[in-house]
Amino acid sequence: MYDVFDGHNDLPWHLRERHGSSIERLDDPTVSPFTTLPQLREGGVAAQFWSVFVHSDVSGPAAVTATLEQIDLVHRLIAANPEALGFAPTAAQVRTVAASGRTASLMGVEGGQQIDGSLAVLRDYARLGARYMTLTWSTTHEWADSATDAPRHGGLAPFGREVVEEMNRIGMIVDLSHVAPSVMHQALDLTTQPVVFSHSCAAELNPHPRNVPTDVLDRLPDNGGVLMITFVPSFVTDERRRWVEAGEHGTPPQVTVADVADHCDFVRERIGAQYVGLGSDLCGTDSMPEGLDSAAGYPALFEELARRGWSDAELRGLGFDNVLRVLEANDAAYTATVGADLLDRKEGSR
Description:
With 350 residues, this protein is α/β, with parallel strands linked by helices. The chain is 44% helix and 13% strand. The strands form 2 sheets. Strands 1, 2, 3, 4, 5 and 6 form a 6-stranded parallel sheet that branches. A 3-stranded parallel sheet has the order 7-8-9. Helix 5 (119-127) packs parallel to helix 6 and helix 12 crosses helix 13. The radius of gyration is 18 Å and the shape is globular.
């Protein structure tokens, strides 16, 4: 079984919305059908970016409070399950926790509006263990345009450029899922560190606005970043996207493991297997592809890709090594910001 370093799981928001932020009974699929602790083990999830998402209906100081509550939930989740999870914000710590048989746990902030226009808040999120920030969620905000909302800035506003530069300085990975193509290009022009698309697919196969255009994808080798293929059905197939856009009438078109594998294949053939990873978005939508409907499902995707001729090294890269490379590239700046003493106290924490 191949180790998985998944780029995006919305379990914290699911627990907030459905269970009052309780972290109890996470071995029970009736509490969290897409992600339980046994499913993480069964699927080989050796590392996970937990999304600390806040809906963009929440803004201003309330968005900061809600983000801190989400961060607190993740820390409580880790502390309550020391046999299964370990806090691991750096690549070295990820290796340590994963080697112990637990899921190395990091966080990603899913929306630049969650900093409420403050670089100090951004830095504090980093100190609390957030290692990436998605520059927008589904709505355009004060300093960046979203892929799924009307543009206001022609990409990044001047403050948005400052945010990208500060993220590089403090070692917080720039996440370009959700953003408009103009923001993708401008951020790639600005960044000095590898980026991620934490949960997106290839627009060449499905022209959903949440997917990555080929001219952006072609820039990833020069940057060293990773497109982490998501399992969201309407992002995966054009037929499912059109069904959703038409109002979701009747039986939804089936989306399968093979359809997800097609996106992995496309990236591998277009720019190389070292620039593709996995970002499921489990718990972030109400359905998943057949065979990939929980955190236990990853082996089915590896089996499909192996059948298509992917090598052992390519599968290890897809599952784990590629995103670990991006994390490690940002680690020196992160450690300088947070402080080695603090990280030492947390390393592999139980």
